[in-house]
Amino acid sequence: MKLKALLLCALSLLFALPAPSHAQLNEADKKLARDILQQLIEINTTDSVGNVTIASEAMAKRLRDAGFSDGDIFIDGPNDGKKNLVVRLRGRGGKKPVLLMGHLDVVEANREDWTTDPFQLVEKDGYFYGRGTEDMKASDAIYVLTMMRLKHEGYRPERDLILALTADEEGGKSNGVDWLLKNHRELVDAEFALNADGGGVITEKGKPFVVAMGASEKLYADYELAVTNPGGHSSMPTSENAIYRLADALTRLQNYHFLFELNDVTRAFFRQTAKVQSGQVAADMLTVTRIPPDQSAIERLSKDPYYNALMHTTCIATRVQAGHANNAQPQRAIANVNCRILPGHSRDEILQVLTKVVDDPKVSVSYVNDGMKVIMGNREKTALPPVPLKPAVMDPLEKISAEMWPGAPVVPEMGTGASDGVYTNPAGIPTYGVCGLAIDVDDDRSHGRDERLPVESYYNGAVFYYRYLKAVAGGK
Ligand SMILES: [Zn+2]
User: What residues have a C-beta under 5 A from ligand 1, the ion?
Assistant: First the structure.
């Protein structure tokens, strides 16, 4: 749900849209949905004191009780507290399976920061409160509920449906998706994956605005700019000053703009978002998707930080450290430059661009790896191209969205952060952020205090996934 910031400016158009209309869950499924969510929220799965295995086992028990055989349920992981669950609903084998991905771990939450106990499911004022209600235990519970419902019905999809509930997406050292791909690829191998950790219905005061679908991610990279200098007494300044030299380099960086570039996802994003925008913004969104795009439209849209980030690789100074004494000329000045690289470009390529922009042999430019170390090698990683917008994924999403949230277009989005798709996409399993939960544009509390989800949104999300999975998996 990363579209929020950008849409705030367009909300005045919302009020023309009708309220959602669709089938409801029956009372028994509603109760079951709530019970599963409550159980998951109340099993602490934080990295510090929590345990993902307990959550995996609890969900496995429910699925076993619903009729899944032991042979179709797998629980394992790199250590006792981080075991992942993989469950398979067997289909006719007509096509390669579809993988459903969800992380069971949650971000830390302190009782004293919260109004309610973060590890109790509390229903209050039309919301479910608890750590993971938004990110992403509600979606995990919906997956489990849907698998149970499909099993009860004796539903036989055309292709296998695989559910993987995993550890350590939010942090920790035992990422479950990575572990499964390395150790049990056959269990999770699929034509494509659906990950409810991305995408979602964005609403304003409960009214649907857009249905976002995660289809691409930028690549994160840090670089270090460093100047060293013999220094000396500050009472006799020389013409060489490490801080000035670094500041000059940073000013050149500030004035540099990476080339404008759209891909299939961001182009579709602007075309679709133009439908719910108006005036100059809507016109500019359409203009930038044309070839060649209009430079003045790019400049106007770039004033919005989110649109700017969609159209360009960005690199900014985020930290500086310089000097060693108030009365000495600085011997060293260092800046960290944080870049978010557009799909299709590599960290090496951006290193070369930065070196050119800095344009000063006395300022060294180096890549800084994930472990915060300046390194010379192993920085080849390229931001993957966006996933193709497959009809098998898009068509049912468009159709069901139009029925459940009429007037809210499906908008492919490019995330600026990373999800577990960072493992499945390079492994050749294109991953789509698809989620039927609706959250208000200004009420995103994931990772924050008093995390919550509208009760209605939860049950609607369950209706959506049931319908969507059947459409994606085919069969009866
Ligand atoms: Zn998440």
Answer: 135-136, 197
